[in-house]
Amino acid sequence: MNKEIENSRVSPGKKFVLKDQDTSYNGDLEKEAGKAALDLVKEALDKLQETLYAADSHSVLILFQAMDAAGKDSAIAHVMSGLNPQGCQVYTFKTPTSEEYDHDFLWRHYKALPERGRIGIHNRSHYENVLVCKVHPEYVLNEKIPGYDTVKKIDDKFWKRRYESIRNFEKHISDNGTVVIKFFLNVSKEEQKARFLERIEDPVKNWKFSSSDITERERWKDYMEAYEQAINETSTAQAPWYIIPADKKWYARLLISQILEHHLKGMNLKFPVLGEEEMAKLEEIKRSLLLEG
Length: 293
Description:
- By secondary structure, this protein is of the alpha/beta class.
- The protein has helices spanning 3-8, 31-55, 72-80, 98-101, 107-111, 132-135, 156-175, 189-201, 211-217, 220-234, 249-266, 276-291, and strands spanning 59-66, 88-92, 119-123, 178-186, 241-245.
- 48% of the residues lie in helices and 11% in strands.
- The radius of gyration is 22 Å and the shape is globular.
């Protein structure tokens, strides 16, 4: 594990303080050098993904969480560009539907888990239930949980149980062969402002901006507290959190790809080896093909 990967990983049991993180860190690289390094990682990811698909014994679940304009969509696009789309699936989670509200909060996320041999990418995730719902506890009332019919009843014990549910969920899927990697793209409030202004000033990017983005920006401090607590409560050995400096998008993309490469290599997967009977059949078919024409 290189220094940047190790430093970005949140150690289980060790107090993580979000304000101590440098959102503009770039690994002491120049932009062009970072892009060149990313191209090399993409080549490695292509081969590693092929092995994952062929082995058909594990899956990989990548979670992206961030404030608006942190670069989740572009990071996903760049990570995907180094992978075979046939072995990937991307889900973007928005406000739950009425059907989803009629189930527990993890139901829709469990349904979207990747099959063995595949990489699943969740743009926002089950963590919205301890992030946006923590900042806006009135949203929890839509779940109609017995005993929680007013916001006042949604207390610290409620959130502790919800963190526990998340830890148990991630442990369960990890125990059954899903490698869980969680990314928080850590953008500064100043950089978010610059990106919002760019979206407003550029007609091509107007569609990316919503007035609700400003409403949520006004709750920045509340969101940072929610992220810090959620990360501290749920970064485990089996499902680690990685804090990605996101003020420089090119570096965020490189670090995310390096972390994915690290985990795929650590799985030590191999291409399946055929048995003697299957190998004999292949030789027979080979001889038949060579005799054609």
